[in-house]
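User: ok so my PI wants both of these folded by tonight, can you help

Assistant: No problem, let's get them done. Here's the first:
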Amino acid sequence: MKIVTFGQRTEEWLLWRKEGVSASEAAIIMNESPYMTPWRLWAEKVGLAEPDDLSKNPFVQYGIAVSYTHLTLPTNREV
């Protein structure tokens, strides 16, 4: 398994997330998300739809703030 870590919210990180499925998207793929359909996720991944701007959402803002204070990971190493 290859562990890749990029600075969260960087351009490199955002591009990497577009290439696959993240843990945050697992519920969407299983059609268990009340926020997005599998079709919408697919459309965003292939560029047919733009993702919603969640930057003003207070829960998203809180999650970003907390993740920066708790996240320290090694970079690009094989495990």
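One down. Here's the second:
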Amino acid sequence: MDKYPKITCLLKGANTLIASEKNIYIQKFGSSILSKGGMGDVLAGEILSYLSQGYSTKDSVIYGSLAHSFASNKYTKNN
């Protein structure tokens, strides 16, 4: 991250890791439904929706990841 200090990186997994501005955020609210094909595309769309509204890259990645996880948890509870 020292070579590219303005990058925000998201590693999608059992616990989603977000690295930005020398900070690492761990988002642990996901569910197994997020391992299905196409879910990364949905996450990218959610992040882009925040970016298009003027949020910073870091905030867009964090908010998009949380919204993605919370929606999957709600879906899992209701089905």
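The chain has two helices and three strands. The helical segments are 39-52, 57-78. Good luck tonight!
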